[in-house]
Amino acid sequence: MPTPEANFWNTLKRNLPPNCFPTRIENRHGGGIPDVHFTWSGLMFWMELKTTKNNAVKLSPQQIAWNTAYSAKSGLNFILVKHLPSSDLILFRGSRAVDLARSGLASGGGFRASGHQAMWNQVRESGISHLESVLEQLRGSGVGDSGSGFGGLAQGQLGTGAPVLGLQQPRLEAKEEVSID
Fold this sequence. Notes:
alpha+beta, Trna Endonuclease, Chain: A, domain 1, 6-stranded mixed beta sheet, disordered C terminus
């Protein structure tokens, strides 16, 4: 018999937005890596899936550590909780893992939705805001500055498909193999 989390995953798969590619991670050895990695129209993020019958959300110490560390390094990650009695979906940023483990759904700060569409809209808006923040941090940090080879990326050409000026493509050269005896 499938677990509530397996049923949750199957329902989530059936309700993916267009252009969303999930990769389910089966890791029974710990490490805290979230359940699913998503690529959605260029937005990449991790999501830990949890179900609860009450307000408690069970996160392992490894899951708390992974989500906290990944968020601290500007990674985009979420914890999505399905409240089984109401069928509501509650979306938390991964940076909230400690609060969520400590206080459960009472910790607040989560986006509550009664349907998948509203939840995916919140993921998209949160992801766009996150990417804008990361790009702003990169500007002036030396990454993407003129002469770094990535100037076009930091100047708004990301994802346009246009060639990035100043970016040198590596050339492959055949070299004679020398044996050392």
